[in-house]
Amino acid sequence: MSETTYDIAVVGAGCAGYQLLYQLAQQPAWSSWRVLLLSDGIPLQRSWCFWATDNHPLQHLVTKSWTDIEFQSPDFGQTQAVAPYSYHYIAGDTFFRYFEDVFLLQNSNIQVVTTNVCSLTNTSGQFAITTTAGVFRASQVYSSRHETPPNPGYWNLSQHFRGWFIRTDRPVFQEQVATLMDFRVPQQDAVQFAYVLPFSPTQALVELTAFSSATAYAPARYDAMLTSYLAQRYPGVAVTVEATEQGQIPMTDHSFTRFGRAGELLLGTAAGMVKPTTGYAFRRIGRDCAQLAHAFSTGNPAHWPTTTGRFRFYDRLLLGILTEQPEMGVDIFTHLYRHTSFTNILRFLDEDSSLFDEARLISRLPYTPFLTQLIRQWKH
According to the lineage, what is the superkingdom (predicted)? Predict the structure, then answer.
């Protein structure tokens, strides 16, 4: 069993692990650090989206951007420009191809080991990582390993989805318009909507997304709903499915921590970087990784910019409603998009809004489910 000492060890070669390495590489002393990347070798097949008013550090990996957002429900539909925001998409294969074929080759101080981590301990400020490939030692460890918490949150939903990358036999898509929510699908026992990202007039990613307390559906259930949705929205159009993606994202009010059991710094989903009520995480993870890299470089303590304060309160209220009254989901989101500009909605979801903006937004939502949930949570 071999032993090697590193300045930094990163556990997990995914969205968070690679974004952290990218940010560390921007620090002045980067070339002098010995860095270990531990990967389980399991390929990830997924993509990421985010909105922003400025360029992301990985903007060069953005596959497609949209200037307009569409919302649809059975009794309301609207498309709006969302300037100064743009909505961006990064394909998973583009992301991983860049890091595996370009970034790692350009940074020879990174050693990549494909293995499974068995245990992680910390003795006198030095970490020992026991893996199936041997024991590695590091002064600092960052980990994106997500473990089911022993005490989960009070509200624990799942956002699960399956998407088709499709090609149509004739132009049907508006290239500049991304459909974030289309509720013209059966709701059944969960909040369910379609999500459409057009890459060209004849190519798009179309997903069926559900917010539910149940686990992910069988692929056949998603596929049946996708088939029905496409036939309804684009009647008479022949569709070819060229690829698929499927995933599951936690939606929970669990109180995450900055540190793991051995004192390692947690990343990504493991650190609560997923916005509980939307499932968006890419930009939040990027911001977190930037401050973690700066903290390591300067020797300052890392802060923890996850959802807190009033935004955590808003998230808890909505999670409670979607758990106990999923049938209210369509009505709540329809009121939100009908009475609030899409730009202000994005600002609110980004947690950049003011108290005045939030009061106006909330006052336009159906008050009965929120008041009922507020009373229930106050009693709890």
Answer: Bacteria
User: Distance between CA atoms of 238 and 230, rounded to whole angstroms?
Assistant: 10
Q: Which CATH architecture has domain 3-47+91-150+254-298?
A: 3-Layer(bba) Sandwich (3.50)
Residue 65 β-bridge partners: 88
Tokens of 1: 């069993």
Confidence of residue 188 (pLDDT cuts 50, 70, 90): confident
The confidence band for 125, taking pLDDT boundaries of 50, 70 and 90, is: confident
How big is the CA angle at 346 (ends 81 and 259), to the nearest 5 degrees? 150
Residue matched to tokens 């909605």: 345
Type and span of the H or E element at 11: strand 3-11
Indicate the pairing of strand 64-66 with strand 86-90. Answer: antiparallel
Assign 152 a pLDDT band (cuts: 50, 70, 90).
Answer: confident
Fold of 156-252: D-Amino Acid Oxidase; Chain A, domain 2 (3.30.9)
The answer to whether the CB of 3 falls within 8 A of the CB of 128 is no
Kindly state the average pLDDT of the residues 171-199: 96
